[in-house]
Amino acid sequence: MKKNQPDYDVNLTERSEKDKMIAEAAYFRAEKRGFALNNDLEDWLEAEIEVEGYLNSFQD
Length: 60
Description:
Shape: elongated
């Protein structure tokens, strides 16, 4: 391993943080709907789009 190189996978860590953001956004979407059943996948997918857009806004 090179000196000053982290001993963990940086991309995995970033992905983990991103997944936490998506999970939180999906939870708030479900909460807004009163936790109605059978919409969890839709909540997750919409939260992914929302978080991707948010994170991409910092890349310009």
